Amino acid sequence: MYALVLATLLNADQIIDKYIEARGGLAALHSIRTIIYRGDYHEGDYQDHKAAMSLMRPYYKLVGDAEKPNPEFAEGYDGSAWEYYGDPGFVVRTTGAASAAGRHATTIDGPLVDYRERGWKVTLEGADKVGDRNAYRLRVHMRDGFEQDELIDAETFLLIAERKAAPVHAFGKAIASEERMSDYKPVEGGALFAFKHQEVEIATGRVLNEMTWTSITINHELPASAFSPPEVKRTAIGQLIEQLYAEREDGEAVMWTYADFRRAHPDVDTHDAAQIAGYQMLKMKDVAAATALLAANAHDYPNVPAAHFGLGRAYRTAGDNLKAKAEFRRALEIDPKYQRAIDALKEMR
């Protein structure tokens, strides 16, 4: 009964207005031009590390610290999504699920504030619960068709959870998850931000990852270039990766380029290049070309466990689980402690 009453008390825009007020007001939120989150990230049993996220209006995003760029790897959005790899040195502009993951969270204010200006739509889906908290459930409809639910606490009117279905890895299956927000604190200027985030798989309750921000810095002057990939020094291997990635929709072209390079550079180790290019192709859903390339790589480097793991991942993405398991097992025959293959086989049970 309480849920039915709750769902009829306010409409979507009234809830959003109260949410904005609870966050400190529209003026306080709009006064933030840049923001850098810094903190600690935890995933699973073995991935703990420092993490950062930087945003700048109108849509710039860097998965990292814009004041302390990472020379080895970076990803972001500067009008389109990109990934940068310092070794061997190349940049890819992503599409599909990888691009979507990059562009869906580029707003300093979050998805509810100014949603109309972005061409989005928000609907009230009813009442719900997050733990023992009663909440309004607002559905955000983005202009590319993606949808996610924002759970607004019925008493505090703060965002306490976000639900969506998206791949945990860019070419994996979509997992329905709930990200829970807590520990709201004011930053300079008075706007409230959540300092703790925990994402759980809805079906199982398994914790996928946890983030605790130790500082949130606003309005430091940042150049737009901090949100674009750095210049790379062009190398033969870097050029090969770029060529393979550019040809990803044409499997014959991919294999021709790969064969030509190996014939012209017989002393150059191409294993990592094929793995990187194949991984990126899988993320872009060019599975046939990626599988052909990774099969050639496994043939050319039969005693490298990563080569067989990469091919197994391609087969799994293609839906051929028998071949995928065979390649993961082959990787373990070479190295019984190869953790990525162990984890992959566990996931496929």
What would you note in describing this structure?
By secondary structure, the protein is α+β, with helices and mostly antiparallel strands. It has two domains: 2-227, outer membrane lipoprotein receptor (LolB), chain A (Clam), CATH 2.50.20.10; 236-347, Tetratricopeptide repeat domain (Serine Threonine Protein Phosphatase 5, Tetratricopeptide repeat), CATH 1.25.40. It is built from eleven helices and 13 strands. The protein has a 13-stranded antiparallel β-sheet with strand order 6-5-4-3-2-1-13-12-11-10-9-8-7. Strand 1 (34-43) and strand 2 (47-56) form a beta hairpin. It is globular, with a radius of gyration of 23 Å. The two termini are 42 Å apart.
The CATH class of the largest domain is identified as Mainly Beta
* CATH superfamily (homologous) name of the largest domain: Lipoprotein localisation LolA/LolB/LppX
Tell how many strands the DSSP assignment holds.
13
The computed structural class is alpha+beta
Which percent band covers the strand fraction? Answer: 25-35%
What value does the Rg take, in angstroms?
23 Å
